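Batch job 17 of 40 flagged for manual review because the log was empty.
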Amino acid sequence: MKNVEINQKIMKHREKISQQAELKVCDIVLEIRDLALNAKSETNRLRAYDMLMKHLGGYVNELKIIENLPEDQLEAIYQMIIDKLGEI
């Protein structure tokens, strides 16, 4: 009985220590931001900016935009395309 209680306490403390030691996404983003602003190498600055843009959704392609449009806007765009094709 005593060993079970001790093992449970040890596991609880291990979990707490593990949670405290974790790097958080926010910490990593701030570190990358610091690199982007202060790296001596232009290559490192550009890589850091690229990582930030990817993380923050700064690179958006047309397909993503179209996928997120409401149905009525998609219908309007579709109709405009059909109208333009009819003019050709």
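Reviewer: the log was empty due to a logging misconfiguration, but the result itself is present. The two ends are 85 Å apart (CA to CA). Unflagging and moving on to job 18.
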